Amino acid sequence: MTSPPCEADPDLFFDEGNAGRTARAKKVCAGCPLRDPCLTEALAHAVEGVWSATTTDERKAMRRRAGIKARQIVTNPLRWKGEVA
């Protein structure tokens, strides 16, 4: 089992104020095998940072278009540790 790519530098995914770091975080997400469950989690909850190659604002817009109301629970994107084959 390998770890999700976001585990290498978790701080990278929570610095949306820095366009360069956000772009790098999105690039890391783009090849992640956990991208679908990560996006599902991020859309269901009001999480901050880059998740599944989307920013907080991008997910807000996605939820608004889809009529999804996020729960105000912050979860850890690294909780899938060890689930990648």
Structural commentary:
The protein has one domain (7-77). The chain is mainly alpha-helical. The longest helix is centred in the first third of the chain and has 12 residues, at 19-30. The chain has helices spanning 19-30, 35-44, 56-66. The protein is built from 3 helices and no strands.
- Largest sheet data: none
Oligomer state of the chains in this structure: single chain
The shape, in one word, is globular
What's the number of domains?
A: 1
Number of strands: 0
Q: How much helix is in the residues?
A: 25-40%
Mean pLDDT: 84
Order of helices and strands: HHH
What's the topology here?
Layout (H helix, E strand, L loop, with lengths): L18 H12 L4 H10 L11 H11 L19
Short description:
With 85 residues, this protein is mainly alpha-helical.
Keywords:
0% strand, 3 helices, disordered C terminus
